[in-house]
Amino acid sequence: xxxxxxxxxxxxxxxxxxxxxxxVITKAQTTDAVAHLKPIDPALSIAKSLAVCSAPEVVxxxxxxxxxxxxxxxxxxxxxxxxxxxxxxxxxPENPNLTQQMRAPRNTLSGYVEKAxxxxxxxxxxxxxxxxxxxxxxxxxxxxxxGQGFVGRL
Length: 154
Description:
This protein is mostly helical. Helices cover about 30% and strands about 5% of the residues.
């Protein structure tokens, strides 16, 4: 760009002035070209405030608490959890309006129902007997003894 600016007429007097300006320009360009090779003034340097970190801080494996929480409504777990993880208390906010009965673990709306090995025919027979006559055999008792094996009014 400077060459185009300095390009003028082809007279001899202009060429001497052009050569002088070219020398000044080339001197300025050479000083700018080698400016990055000169040392930085220590007052302006930030090298003292920077530190080389050859190895970052490492946290030991046992120092980190990586306990996993299991949702109590999950029926299947894809890994083998520890006892503390499996039976840990449920995390999160607790509803203050729930009664003690509502806070109890349950698998139905009315409570906790366990599976029982009862024949379907006998179950239906005792259910109909209870609704018709008001009593039925107690399924938790194996043998009828002293009238204690019934549920309801005889």
